[in-house]
TrEMBL record:
The lineage of its organism: Eukaryota, Viridiplantae, Streptophyta, Embryophyta, Tracheophyta. Keywords: Heme, Iron, Metal-binding, Oxidoreductase, Peroxidase. PROSITE patterns: PEROXIDASE_1, PEROXIDASE_2, PEROXIDASE_4. One of its GO terms (molecular function) is metal ion binding. It catalyses: 2 a phenolic donor + H2O2 = 2 a phenolic radical donor + 2 H2O. This is Ascorbate peroxidase 6.
Length: 316
């Protein structure tokens, strides 16, 4: 039973005593004596096992089935999940440039930021692809087009959801611009309809309204401030447009805008400036201006929360 031991490492024992199903795009039917029946027809793959309790009960053939079909099983931390992630990262890196990074990061917020804790709608679900004609999404057609190419490539190897693709692309965008490396868990399922309208905060909001808007999505004032640091990328005047650093906070503290100076009045959105007028937010702005490592750590955490917000996951 040498092969039993070898393959057992790749098989999640939890799987062997439960039923599993997730989507995929091919047709496959596998069975083995004393082993989970693997039936893959049309859109769903189902793996079920009634009695197995230890890998040693399974035959060699069965373990080979598991080894050869393991690419279909999205176990977090398994070789399969790692491969899936590397494939995505590789394909994204082929098209990603620093100039494209701001648009890709903005796309993440416009997909996930629609989440509403009250009615549990919105969130990181890929619905942005149905919402590109909304005024707040002007300019996001381009990043979606870039990712369409990537999706085509990745889908030909194994299907990826828009939600996963956007989440990973945003993390790669941060990383290529010198920001923190952010691991992204895969397995989100895409929505098939657009999210309700009017869920993203408007740039004209004051700090209280902004905090309230983020509270409704499950984010604190500190998390609002950390996430807004994403505006260090792009052309709103917060330092180098393609360098991810803490210059957003340094410039917010300087408040270089003034109604009489047309150039400096271009700096920042009204919502960015509003944060610097709020006592609670200014404390975090000051901390992040003084300590870039703290900003990176907190951005990493809140980005992870953002891309998991409202997500529906493939079941394992
Ligand atoms: C706090 C509420 C937010 C508001 C009101 C807001 C609004 C805006 C607006 C109006 C723009 C300018 C778009 C344009 O150039 O046409 C922008 C740019 C951008 N936003 Fe936000 N945003 C917010 C939060 C976020 C968050 C949380 C992220 C990401 C985590 C983000 C990422 C970006 C990026 C990267 C850009 C630059 C895009 C580019 O230059 O192509 N924003 N945002």
């Amino acid at each position: 039973m040498r092969s039993t031991t070898a393959a057992a490492a790749a098989v999640d024992p939890a799987l062997l005593s439960s039923a599993v199903s997730f989507s995929a795009g091919r047709e496959l039917k596998l069975t083995a004596k004393n082993f989970p029946a693997v039936k893959f027809t049309g859109k769903r793959l189902t793996v079920s096992c009634a009695a197995a309790s230890s890998p040693s009960q399974f035959g060699r053939r069965a373990l080979m089935y598991m080894a050869t079909t393991s690419f279909l099983m999205p176990f977090p931390n398994s070789a399969s999940a790692t491969d899936e992630n590397s494939l995505l990262q590789e394909e994204i890196k082929k098209v990603l440039t620093k100039a494209k990074a701001p648009g890709l990061l903005r796309l993440v917020f416009h997909d996930a930021g629609t989440f509403d804790e009250g009615d549990k709608t919105g969130g990181m679900n890929g619905s942005i692809v149905y919402e590109l004609d909304r005024p707040e999404n002007t300019g996001l057609q381009k990043p979606v087009k870039i990712l369409e190419k990537v999706k085509g490539q990745v889908d030909s190897v194994r299907p990826v959801s828009w939600a996963d693709l956007i989440a990973v692309a945003g993390a790669e965008a941060v990383s290529i611009c010198g920001g923190p490396k952010i691991p992204v868990q895969l397995g989100r399922i895409d929505a098939t309809v657009p999210d309700p309208v009017g869920k993203l905060p408007e740039e004209s909001l004051d700090a209280n309204a902004m905090k309230q808007s983020f509270r409704k999505k499950g984010f604190s004032a500190q998390e609002l401030v950390a996430l807004s640091g994403a505006h260090t990328l792009g052309n709103k005047g917060f330092g180098n447009p393609s360098v991810f650093d803490n210059s957003y906070y340094k410039i917010l503290l300087e408040k270089p805008w003034s109604p009489s100076d047309s150039m400096s009045s271009m700096i920042g959105l009204p919502s960015d400036r509003a944060l610097s007028e709020d006592g609670e937010c200014i404390r975090w702005i000051t901390k992040y201006a003084e300590d870039q490592n703290l900003f990176f750590e907190d951005f990493k955490k809140v980005y992870t929360k953002l891309v998991n917000t409202g997500a529906k996951w493939r079941s394992v």
